[in-house]
Amino acid sequence: MFCILFVYILSYLTWTISPITLNDNGSHLATFSVKLLEFQNRGRRRMDGKCCGKSNDGLAHCQQPCSLEFLICLEPFGIPVSLTNSEPYSGPCVYGKTGTGHWGNSDVTYGVDEAPTHHINITLPWPVSLFGKF
């Protein structure tokens, strides 16, 4: 499994991943949980490299903070994903996806206990080939 978090290249992101929990009620096989702990966008730029907010013509540095929102997408390991494409990821998210909604502005830091947990309910079985033989 591969968790894809698309972030502008000059940014910094820290996250924690909880163990996958198995579901007993049958609506899904397991739940993948992730907490985004820290994000820094010191350049105050969007994924496409443009400044956030209004145009800052003539200024060397972007002034307006960005409104943050993340797509968390679970894909099988073998699916090729570009880490340099400035377009939002539009892949199939085979094992599921979730969004954070508005998450803050430009620089955000949470403690482990206060960070919101984002869940993806997994409904497809894992390919055995990903785990190998032990």
Automatic annotation (TrEMBL):
Domain Notch ligand N-terminal per the UniProt entry, residue ranges: 31-125
One of the GO biological process terms: Notch signaling pathway
Signal peptide start-end: 1-16
GO CC annotations on file: membrane
Keyword Ribonucleoprotein: no
Positions in coiled-coil regions: none
Taxonomy, superkingdom: Eukaryota
Keywords: EGF-like domain, Membrane, Repeat, Signal, Transmembrane, Transmembrane helix
This protein's record includes keyword ATP-binding: no
Protein name: Notch ligand N-terminal domain-containing protein
Taxonomic lineage: Eukaryota, Metazoa, Spiralia, Lophotrochozoa, Platyhelminthes
